[in-house]
């Protein structure tokens, strides 16, 4: 609908009250002519309003009963004015009461029904409780004023004329009913966000009631005459109903959700009860002709003070409510929006367009800070909080101010970007990663922290907050697995991988209880003599439904969830029992190595667990070897006391996969260890000069430090020859034996020779 199309009918309809007002100013001296003009304008304007109601709104899509009763009410009002005009033209005056008043009264009854059914259609029980308070205050005031100035004088003047009394009382009583419904309608429309759509209707009936009140007061005290204020108000009300009808037919029937929180509305509601109460007090004082005495004066002062105090308390409560509302939808640390706000915003972006049959694209970015836990553990949570604030500030500076950023908790952030496709999302992700390339500098710290970003797209990857966040979470973990400081989009393959991970995590918790784990053993061989000099215990998992699950798959999940601690205890206990069993069978004593995780070392109670296990099962400590990975070297200060405690028990300690992680000559020199194991990756291609050099260097370091060196992953004779050349005496690998069950190991131990392989 164009602006011109809106303005033309509005000007046309408002032309009538404006013209009439000008007429009264210039040509109102002749009462008979004024009566004819007034009635004619009312009839003409009423006919136009009725035409709009019947032809502009032929088949309304909503609140049909409301439109029906409104049409009947306007029709009766028109009939009343037609009868009035005919009576004036025929008789020159009107006898009161007459049929025009009857039709007039009936029109108000149908207005009441129209508003009732409109409220019934639009009503919502979720409107503010303040609405009831304001409604009660205003209606008490309106009823009191109506009784004092209208109803009581009407009863007094009626002199027991029943018809006169009924007709005269019907206007203020029906008017109070309409006023009550108007206030209810106002709050319902405010909550539904539809007030703009029906505002002209509310204003029209409000002016109508005001005109009736003025007319009733003037009639009671004999001051009414044609062309008075009440006629101007009625004519304005008529015009507004016509304008409302025209605008409604060009307005979308879909109302937006949410309370209309414009400043004007909020301030009006805030002071509304005080205005009404103050007005009632003024009218009360006026009814006593302003005759003050000490008591009434004191009461007035106290009343004003109480009202002022209530206003101050309400202001204070509103400030607290605003603060609580802010905290409910914002993260207290960073000032970003929180999870509750995200769910609400996403619902709005998905549901509102869906109501209009629109499906807009959007992207969900889930950011997780790489290595943030290490910052908290090493520098403290206070430093971690400062870093989170700086991350929030940097995200704000990178992204458009219209893009909302949320903190889900911990070091997880979420970005919601509407109206965006995959290519644009990729550009933004690269921009964010680039901005995190520079370090965060505060106080005496300079920290480089990077994000891993998972991205899900609506509607491809989900149609609700739970599905979209889950998809972004899966993509984010994949980005971490790719090396962190990266981004990745969700896809169906990732979902299958993630689903399997969830299944494995769930089943892993029951594996020990259900006896699904088993230990396999791989011999360590003296490369020169071919004799077995040790055995490594390796865990295997056979699930009744999933089948054999590789340690490469389930061990990282166990590490991540913390279940590795229970699994590690089971491995230690089971290996020690096997050592005891072999000893009882009279087999040659053989040192068995057991892998220990970083999580077990971090508990600090691992040496005591080893000691208690050895004592409980009853085996010598020198038959047990604990294998650790280089990741333990991340925190040497915590590691060294644990290693010393283990060696004090008489247990040997070895570093597995040496050369692939955190090793340094200085740290290696300080660690209380006995053995280092060369990782398989260095033996995979012995023709590579650089790899051969690394193997030689590791062997030189180990021999110079007085450590035993064991080579892992031996698969051919050439590797054995190279190792012997560099003075490596012990190795293990598929060339000799893959990991095998305990009973098969017994055969090898009994023969105690692998010379056939050499």
Commentary on this structure:
- With 758 residues, this protein is of the alpha/beta class.
- The protein has 3 domains: 3-260; 339-490, Alpha-Beta Plaits; 504-757, Alpha-Beta Barrel (TIM Barrel).
- The chain has 25 helices and 16 strands.
- β6, α15 (465-481) and β7 (487-489) form a beta-alpha-beta unit.
- α5 runs antiparallel to α6, α5 packs parallel to α9 (263-287) and α16 crosses α17.
- The longest helix has 36 residues, at 294-329.
- It is elongated and about 140 Å long.
Mean pLDDT: 80
Strands ordered across the widest β-sheet: 8-9-11-12-13-14-15-16
Helical proportion, percent range: 55-70%
End-to-end span in angstroms? 94 Å
Alpha-beta classification: alpha/beta
The count of strands amounts to 16
Please indicate the percent range of residues in DSSP E strands (runs of 2 or more).
Answer: 5-15%
General shape: elongated
- Give the total of domains: 3
Task: Please describe the biggest sheet, giving its number of strands, its sense, and whether it closes into a barrel.
Answer: 8 strands, mixed, barrel
Return residue spans where pLDDT drops below 50 for at least 5 consecutive residues: 252-264, 354-358
Helix segment tally:
25
Radius of gyration: 44 Å
Task: Report a brief summary of the structure.
With 758 residues, this protein is of the alpha/beta class.
Task: Tag the structure with descriptive keywords.
758 residues, 3 domains, TIM Barrel, five-stranded mixed sheet, Alpha-Beta Plaits, 16 strands, alpha/beta
């Amino acid at each position: 609908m164009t602006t011109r199309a809106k303005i033309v009918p509005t000007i046309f309809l408002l032309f009538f009250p404006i013209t009439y007002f000008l007429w009264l100013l210039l040509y109102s001296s002749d009462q008979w002519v004024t009566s004819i003009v007034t009635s004619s304008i009312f009839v003409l304007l009423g006919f136009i309003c009725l035409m709009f109601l019947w032809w502009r709104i032929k088949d309304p899509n909503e609140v049909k009963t409301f439109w029906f009763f409104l049409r009947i009410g306007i029709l009766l009002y028109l009939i009343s004015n037609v009868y009035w005009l005919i009576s004036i033209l025929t008789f020159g005056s009107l006898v009161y009461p007459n049929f025009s008043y009857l039709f007039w009264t009936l029109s108000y009854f149908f207005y009441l029904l129209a508003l009732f059914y409109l409220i019934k259609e639009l009503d919502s029980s979720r409107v503010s409780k303040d609405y009831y308070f304001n409604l009660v205050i205003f209606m008490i005031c309106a009823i009191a004023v109506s009784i004092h100035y209208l109803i009581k004088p009407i009863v007094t003047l009626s002199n027991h004329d029943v018809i006169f009394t009924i007709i005269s009382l019907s206007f203020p009583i029906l008017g109070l009913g309409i006023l009550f419904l108007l206030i209810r309608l106002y709050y319902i429309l405010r909550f539904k966000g539809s007030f703009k759509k029906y505002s002209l209707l509310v204003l029209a009936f409000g002016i109508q009631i005001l005109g009736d009140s003025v007319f009733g007061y003037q009639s009671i005290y004999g001051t009414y005459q044609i062309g008075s204020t009440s006629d101007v108000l009625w004519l304005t009300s008529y015009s507004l109903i016509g304008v409302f009808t025209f605008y409604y037919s060009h307005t979308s029937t879909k109302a937006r959700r949410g309370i209309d929180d414009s400043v004007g509305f909020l301030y009006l509601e805030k002071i509304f009860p005080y205005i009404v109460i103050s007005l009632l007090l003024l009218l009360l004082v006026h009814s006593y002709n302003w005759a003050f005495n000490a008591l009434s004066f004191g009461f007035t002062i106290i009343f004003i003070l109480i009202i002022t105090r209530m206003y101050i308390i309400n202001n204070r409560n509103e400030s607290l409510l605003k603060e609580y509302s802010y905290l409910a939808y914002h993260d207290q640390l960073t000032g970003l929006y929180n999870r509750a706000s995200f769910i609400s915003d996403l619902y709005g972006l998905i549901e509102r367009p869906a109501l209009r049959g629109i499906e807009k694209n959007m992207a969900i970015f889930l950011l997780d800070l790489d290595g943030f836990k290490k910052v908290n553990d090493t520098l403290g949570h206070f430093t971690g909080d400062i870093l989170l604030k700086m991350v929030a500030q940097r995200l704000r500076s990178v992204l458009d101010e219209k893009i909302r950023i949320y903190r889900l908790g911990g070091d997880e952030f979420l970005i919601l970007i509407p109206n965006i496709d995959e290519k644009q999302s990729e550009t933004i992700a690269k921009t964010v990663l680039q901005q995190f390339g520079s370090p965060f500098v505060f106080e005496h710290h300079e920290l480089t922290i990077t994000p891993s970003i998972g991205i899900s797209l609506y509607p491809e990857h989900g149609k609700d907050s739970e599905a979209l966040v889950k998809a972004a979470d899966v993509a984010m973990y994949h980005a971490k697995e790719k090396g962190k400081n990266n981004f990745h989009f969700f896809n169906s393959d990732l979902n299958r991988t993630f689903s399997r991970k969830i299944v494995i995590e769930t089943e892993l918790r029951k594996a020990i209880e259900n006896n699904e784990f088993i230990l396999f053993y791989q011999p360590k061989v003296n490369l020169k003599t071919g004799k077995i000099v040790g055995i490594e215990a390796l865990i295997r998992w056979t699930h009744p439904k999933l089948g054999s699950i590789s340690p490469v798959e389930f061990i990282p999940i166990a590490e991540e969830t913390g279940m590795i601690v229970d699994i590690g205890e089971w491995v230690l206990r089971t290996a020690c029992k096997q050592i005891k069993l072999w000893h009882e069978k009279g087999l040659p004593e053989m040192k068995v190595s057991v892998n220990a995780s970083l999580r077990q070392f971090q508990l600090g109670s691992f040496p005591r667990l080893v000691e208690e296990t050895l004592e409980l099962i009853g085996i010598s400590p020198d038959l047990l070897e604990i294998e650790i990975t280089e990741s333990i070297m991340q925190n040497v200060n915590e590691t060294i006391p644990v290693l010393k405690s283990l060696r004090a028990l008489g247990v040997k300690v070895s570093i597995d996969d040496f050369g692939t992680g955190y090793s340094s000559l200085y740290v290696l020199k300080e660690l209380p260890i006995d053995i280092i194991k060369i990782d398989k990756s260095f033996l995979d291609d012995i023709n590579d000069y650089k790899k051969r050099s690394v193997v030689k260097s590791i062997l030189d370091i180990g021999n110079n430090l007085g450590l035993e060196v064991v080579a892992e992953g031996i698969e051919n004779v050439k590797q054995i020859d190279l190792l012997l050349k560099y003075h490596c005496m012990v190795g293990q690998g598929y060339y000799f034996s893959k990991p095998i069950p305990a009973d098969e190991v017994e055969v090898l131990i009994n023969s105690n020779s692998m010379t056939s392989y050499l």
